[in-house]
Design goal:
heterodimer, A: mainly alpha, MetI-like fold, two-stranded antiparallel sheet, 13 helices, about 0% strand, B: about 425 residues, 2 domains
């Protein structure tokens, strides 16, 4: 034993030395580039699927584009000026802002209340949570088709239900004006957005330590004091994330409006996305459609920048 | 192994003999038939084949299968041509084609509705160079004229559809109304139906983004108006057109139509019609089979679209086309394209396709075959033969189409028709 013992470290030294990189410099180099190798697939995918289309849209928006899709050179921002001068653009922009604000604000409010309710202990809570997920898990086109069917004057289930209950005697036209249509579209948008807000808030609520509430109760705090002094500050980060993401999703939402009205009548229910779709694929004006897309992108970029500045200032732990 | 190869070659030869249309120019590469005992030369390697790429519009559920069989039959009977048909849905076809064009990978042959935009970009070749005289002679001359720009025909029609008035005979009888032939009679009939049952919509109107231009054409053309005059000038704000839009908007405002013409498409209307909730509507020939396919089909009739007093009725025709892209084709390729069209428009193949798609034929020989097979189709073939078509050869047609839809929808919201049409005319013609 004793004679063999000194030989062992020498063997190990040889064995451990063999898989090493040729020199310490190479190893250091590898360590430096290693993170980039790991993130390379994501970067490549983002470059292909995000950066390239954005570049393409910017390129189209600044070129004269024929209906057959041929680029005919830089046209001095003519696509932008044509779009902005069109009176329907102001109407569409107003609709987009109304649509985004109404859907995001109301769904956040209702989603928050629903999350508070689902955070309580009660029998059947799991089933209730599963039911809330349904609207989220269903395709938007199906949701919008279902809503269109519900409010239809001639065979809609809303009229059938109200007539069976004896509330109305003859079918009512629930969509007699463009504003009524837009209202139903907003209602559908809220319905499908609530689950996302609800689950974001619910995840925040579940991370709140019960001892805060116990201490507040001992100090004599009421329900609303606990809600505004403990719950809201502690779920603020979840609410911020869900609100920012919702602004982007809702602003860019296409299927609900397209399925229900296609932006008709006369652009009264159009948002920027449905409007640019019509410009591109019904009117063949791809350059102008890309200009609308760029304008939408800039508006969202401004919203996202506000969020980014806010997060950077506050720091991660605060959000 | 040799036996298998010999059997395969024999099979290939048999199939080539069964080639449709007999093969004229397209067979120029085929070696002359040898003696009965002489082994056939090996088929030309795929590199020597004329490759033919076709993009075809998907009309229905059976379109893909039909083209797949056509492709397979065509390729097995044409050793020197490699045909590939890509069937694309109407939702995607414009994007797909434009993407291909911008990547310099346009198809050789395209089946779509519009052609003027491609012609304006110098992407097309005159179609006459790619269709044999025999096949070219089959088309209705009026149909070919719809693809005429500056004296050159750029596309050939593949099929057509026409519009007429459908009416529910039982509702009209119960309401004591006659089948209307004039605008005044139409209004009277609508009022009688409304008085008979307030839950039935007397008249169907579609002013949606999908097909509001058809609504404009129905009333403009039956009032002596049009999109353009004979000299090719836009006449969107003519007195006839103003009167036409005011008439139909008036019917809507009087509560004599479906409740929401700006969002109810033709498909919604045909559903209401088939369910007996709509008494009359203007629609294409496919509505017949749609209504007859229902469990309890209604008792319906077909009549001409009502016209204003003293004006003649007119049907609205819709047509799709084949066009050939300019790709500096070799003679072999030109022959291959001719062979493709000869096979497609071969009377039996073509009528089989048109019947399968439930449209109307664009060739006189196809029309004769269909009329003989189905007497109901005969009257439709007569209608489509005299129908008017949209001015799709005009590069501004897309703007005009969207413009008249916008005018109709604005008028529904209370806009002044004359001012709206004046604005559109200034935008298009100015």
């Amino acid at each position: 034993m004793s004679t063999k013992t000194p030989a062992a470290p020498a063997d190990r030294q040889v064995q451990t030395a063999s898989p090493r990189l040729p020199n310490p410099g190479s190893r250091k180099f590898f360590r430096t580039i290693e993170p980039y190798i790991w993130i390379a697939p994501s970067i490549i995918l983002m470059a292909i699927f995000i950066v390239t289309p954005i570049f393409k849209v910017f390129q189209l928006s600044m070129n004269k584009v024929t209906r057959a899709g041929k680029l005919k050179g830089f046209n001095n921002f003519e696509n932008f000026t044509t779009v902005i001068k069109d009176p329907s653009f102001a109407l569409v922009l107003k609709n987009t802002i109304l649509w985004t604000v109404a859907v995001v604000v109301l769904s956040t409010l209702l989603g928050f209340i629903l999350a508070l309710f689902l955070n309580n202990e009660f029998k059947g809570r799991k089933v209730a949570r599963a039911i809330v997920v349904f609207p989220w898990a269903t395709t938007l086109v199906i949701q919008a088709s279902a809503w269109k069917f519900i409010v239809n004057t001639d065979y809609g289930t809303l009229n059938t239900l109200l007539m069976r209950m004896g509330i109305i005697s003859a079918p009512m036209n629930w969509t007699s004006t463009p504003a009524a249509w837009f209202g139903w579209e907003i209602a559908c948008g809220i319905f499908v957005t609530i689950p996302f807000v609800c689950f974001c808030v619910l995840s925040g609520l579940q991370s709140i330590d019960a001892s805060y509430y116990e201490a507040a109760t001992v100090d004599g705090a009421g329900y609303f004091q606990k809600l505004f002094k403990i719950t809201l500050p502690l779920v603020k980060s979840s609410l911020t994330v869900s609100t920012v993401l919702n602004i982007i999703y809702v602003f860019n939402s296409f299927p609900i409006i397209w399925t229900m009205t296609k932006g008709d009548p006369a652009n009264r229910t159009d948002t920027l996305v449905t409007y640019l779709y019509k410009l591109a694929f019904y009117n063949g004006k791809q350059g102008e459609a890309s200009a609308v897309s760029v304008i939408g992108f800039i508006i969202l970029l401004m919203c996202a920048s506000v969020y980014m500045i806010y997060t950077l200032r506050k720091g991660d732990e605060d959000l | 192994m040799k036996k298998i190869l010999a059997a395969l070659l024999a099979a290939a030869m048999t199939l080539s003999l069964a080639a449709c249309g007999g093969g004229n120019g397209g067979q120029s590469n085929t070696p002359p038939a040898g003696g009965s005992g002489t082994p056939s030369p090996a088929p030309a390697p795929s590199g020597d084949k004329a490759s033919l790429n076709v993009i075809a519009a998907q009309y229905g559920d059976l379109t893909k299968d039909w083209w797949a069989k056509f492709e397979s039959d065509f390729n097995s009977s044409h050793d020197n041509i490699d045909l590939k048909v890509e069937v694309v849905s109407w939702n995607d076809i414009y994007t797909v084609v434009n993407t291909r064009i911008s990547n310099n990978a346009a198809p050789d042959i395209l089946n779509i509705d519009v052609f003027a935009d491609y012609q304006a970009d110098d992407l097309l070749r005159p179609i006459k160079d790619f269709v044999s005289d025999e096949t070219y002679a089959k088309f209705y001359p009026a149909f070919l004229e719809q693809s005429n720009i500056d004296g050159t025909i750029w596309a050939i029609p593949d099929l057509a559809s026409a519009r007429a008035m459908y009416y529910n005979a039982d509702i009209l009888e119960a309401a004591g109304a006659e089948v209307p032939t004039t605008w005044a009679e139409l209004k009277t009939a609508c009022e009688k139906i409304k008085a008979y049952d307030a839950n039935i919509y007397p008249w169907g109107v579609d002013m949606t983004t999908d097909e509001g231009q058809a609504c404009f054409a129905y009333y403009s053309w039956t009032n002596g108006g049009d999109f353009m005059d004979a000299s090719g000038n836009w006449t969107l704000n003519s007195a006839e057109n103003v009167e036409a839009v005011e008439y139909i908007v008036g019917l809507v405002k009087a509560g004599l139509t479906n409740s929401d013409p700006a969002t109810e498409t033709r498909y919604d209307l045909q559903e209401l019609f088939a369910a007996g909730k709509l008494a009359m509507m203007i629609g294409p020939n496919q509505i017949t089979s749609y209504v007859e396919g229902k469990d309890n089909p209604i008792n319906f009739g077909i009549a001409s679209i009502p016209a204003n007093e003293g004006k003649s009725t007119s049907s609205v025709g819709v047509m799709d086309r084949f066009m050939v892209f300019d790709k500096e084709d070799t003679d072999d390729k030109v022959d291959a394209i001719k062979e493709f069209f000869d096979c497609f428009y071969e009377d039996k193949v073509y009528s089989d396709w048109v019947i399968m798609e439930n449209f109307l034929p664009a060739t006189s020989t196809g029309g004769e075959i269909m009329a003989a097979a189905d007497p109901a189709a005969a009257s439709w073939i007569e209608i489509v033969g005299s129908a008017k078509f949209y001015p799709t050869a005009q590069a501004k047609w897309a703007d005009v189409k969207q413009g008249v839809i916008d005018v109709e929808q604005q008028a529904l919201l209370g806009g002044n028709v004359k001012e709206l049409l004046d604005g559109l005319q200034a935008k298009i013609a100015g």
